[in-house]
């Protein structure tokens, strides 16, 4: 861990560099199997610091979802939009935008993660170090 | 060990005001010290619950409010845990008195939420969510709680009408609370027909944005006795953090709140069924249902019955009354002050100062104050005047 740097996927720059290449990396606890999205140095479920980094399947199902009507300033132009918590096929859970109308989404629906370059508005709202980080979304399958 | 008690309370008006935060604090402090020696003669340390510097471009609230109270050269600091900041301030004050470090500590909270409109408050509150994934996906506070509500409605027999009835109940309580931001009754159709904010949550499922301050004086029981003040013992205190990202938590077993409540019960030497009244963190209606279960008042999946009279609730419910103040929903939710407004309500209820809204025979209260989304951090306190409780 002492050699942790920005190329390590247990840091956010390392995680987003891989995501920009289309690869979703998760931390997987070597002791209890908990999936951690994004990867991080320690497992919240059991406290172990033996965390492996493994590619995660982009497929999953809707665990819960909502429609944002009153959006934060940086997202106001997109409202209303759908946001969901997705349970991925490999066991991790990840929140993200869903490219579908709220009325067309239900708990249990299959979805697939996609990765996009940040838009001009997203770059505008980003901190310096986030400017090139990709943004993930989910599409209904 | 000295026994920590609440010896006095005060609050500012709650809602849209023309006063900055420090001035709201001055009002709350003046009420708390009415009939007491000046703060400079009593207070040995100050903790201030405050959510965000974005409302007034001001940090250093410990220093600022100590000075405005006429105190200097005392330990004073702001504590931060989004909407749980107020109860964290109370917890620190209680620990200082219990440890014998100080005899009198001021726990206060302040928030000036209306300074930048609804979009300013939305943006300030969003800083409580995980930045890397959640904020960058465009979530808001209502949408995070809507994810919990959607899942709760999916897993239980609760309906949107049940959640609406929780808001109706809390408005009815607030109608008897002169401190409330919205002291008026509403009907269930008003809730169900209000504008969607983050489906399935509608405007009237959501606590309002508002300004406010609260001040709670925590002392040793001995000092409160000397001051001739009615006292309420802080018999238990518990706190628990959980994941920052709501996606990684159990979204219907609010584990952080369960642990905070259980820790406070254990310290107080009581069980959930000893609690007569509870002020819980109903930032959104679904929270009251989830917290009734986490606090051990309701069986799993039955917390949504919190709005019913105790005799009409499912088997396994205690006879607790929830949010007699009107809760965050209708009493108001000036973020950093909220946990202390909960303590204020319990103090008034347990010392016979709750007027028309008094819950008859109540001697023990649970406070559950949450910060971030739901139980990202939860603080629980047991307040009591009962003989026998620790």
From TrEMBL, chain A:
InterPro entries membership: ChsH2_C (IPR002878), ChsH2_Znr (IPR022002), NA-bd_OB-fold (IPR012340), Thioester_dehydratase-like (IPR052513)
Superkingdom field: Archaea
Domain ChsH2 rubredoxin-like zinc ribbon, residue spans: 16-51
Domain ChsH2 C-terminal OB-fold as annotated: residue spans: 55-115
Gene3D superfamilies associated with the record: 6.10.30.10
PANTHER family for the chain: BLR3430 PROTEIN
Protein name per UniProt: DUF35 domain-containing protein
Species assigned in the record: Halobaculum gomorrense
TrEMBL record, chain B:
UniProt domain Thiolase N-terminal: residue ranges: 5-221
UniProt-listed Pfam families: Thiolase_C_1, Thiolase_N
Entries under InterPro entries matching the protein: Thiolase, Thiolase-like, Thiolase_C_2, Thiolase_N
Keyword Metal-binding among record annotations: no
Stretch forming the signal peptide: none
GO MF annotation list: acyltransferase activity, transferring groups other than amino-acyl groups
Domain Thiolase C-terminal: 243-378
Gene Ontology biological-process annotations: isoprenoid biosynthetic process
Top-level taxonomic group: Archaea
Key words of the record: Acyltransferase, Isoprene biosynthesis, Transferase
Official protein name in the record: Acetyl-CoA C-acetyltransferase/acetyl-CoA acyltransferase
Species per Swiss-Prot/TrEMBL record: Halobaculum gomorrense
């Amino acid at each position: 861990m002492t050699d942790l740097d920005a190329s390590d996927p247990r840091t956010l720059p390392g995680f987003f560099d891989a995501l920009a290449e289309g690869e979703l990396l998760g931390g997987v606890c070597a002791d209890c199997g908990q999936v951690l999205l994004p990867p991080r140095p320690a497992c919240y479920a059991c406290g172990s610091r033996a965390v492996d980094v493994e590619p995660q399947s982009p497929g999953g199902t809707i665990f819960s979802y909502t429609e944002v009507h009153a959006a934060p300033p940086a997202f106001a132009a997109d409202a209303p939009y759908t946001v969901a918590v997705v349970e991925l096929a490999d066991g991790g859970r990840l929140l993200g935008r869903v490219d579908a109308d709220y009325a067309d989404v239900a708990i249990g629906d299959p979805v697939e993660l996609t990765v996009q370059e940040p838009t001009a508005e997203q770059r505008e709202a980003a901190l310096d170090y986030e400017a090139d980080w990709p943004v993930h979304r989910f599409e209904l399958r | 060990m000295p026994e920590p008690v609440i010896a006095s309370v005060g609050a500012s008006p709650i809602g849209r005001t023309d006063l900055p935060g420090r001035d709201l604090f001055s009002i709350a402090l003046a009420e708390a010290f009415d009939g007491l020696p000046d703060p400079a003669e009593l207070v040995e340390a100050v903790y201030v619950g405050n959510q965000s510097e974005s409302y007034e471009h001001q940090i250093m609230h410990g220093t600022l409010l100590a000075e405005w109270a006429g105190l200097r050269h005392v330990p004073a600091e702001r504590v931060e845990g989004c909407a749980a900041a107020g109860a964290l301030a109370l917890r620190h004050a209680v620990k200082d008195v219990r440890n014998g470090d100080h005899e009198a500590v001021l726990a206060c909270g302040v928030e000036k939420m209306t300074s930048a409109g609804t979009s300013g408050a939305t943006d300030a509150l969003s800083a409580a969510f995980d930045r890397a994934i959640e904020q960058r996906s465009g979530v808001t506070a209502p949408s995070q709680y809507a994810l919990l509500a959607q899942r709760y409605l999916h897993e239980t027999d609760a309906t949107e009408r049940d959640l609406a009835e929780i808001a109706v109940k809390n408005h009815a309580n607030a109608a008897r609370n002169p401190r409330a931001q919205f002291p008026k009754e509403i009907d269930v159709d008003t809730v169900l027909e209000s504008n969607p904010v983050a489906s399935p949550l509608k405007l009237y499922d959501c606590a309002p944005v508002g300004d406010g301050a609260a001040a709670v004086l925590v002392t040793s029981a001995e000092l409160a006795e000397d001051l001739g003040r009615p006292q309420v013992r802080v018999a238990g205190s518990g706190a628990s953090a959980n994941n920052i990202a709501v996606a990684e938590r159990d979204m219907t077993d609010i584990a952080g709140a369960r642990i905070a409540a259980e820790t406070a019960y254990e310290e107080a030497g009581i069980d959930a069924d000893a609690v007569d009244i509870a002020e819980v963190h109903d930032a959104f209606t679904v929270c009251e249902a989830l917290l009734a279960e986490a606090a051990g008042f309701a069986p799993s999946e039955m917390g949504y019955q919190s709005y019913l009279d105790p005799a009409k609730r499912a088997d396994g419910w205690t006879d607790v009354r929830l949010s007699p103040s009107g809760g965050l929903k209708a009493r108001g939710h000036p973020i950093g002050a909220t946990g202390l407004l909960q303590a204020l309500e319990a103090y008034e209820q347990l010392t016979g100062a709750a007027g028309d809204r008094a819950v008859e025979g109540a001697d023990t209260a649970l406070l559950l104050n949450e910060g971030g989304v739901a139980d990202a951090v939860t603080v629980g306190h047991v307040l009591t005047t009962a003989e026998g409780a620790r």
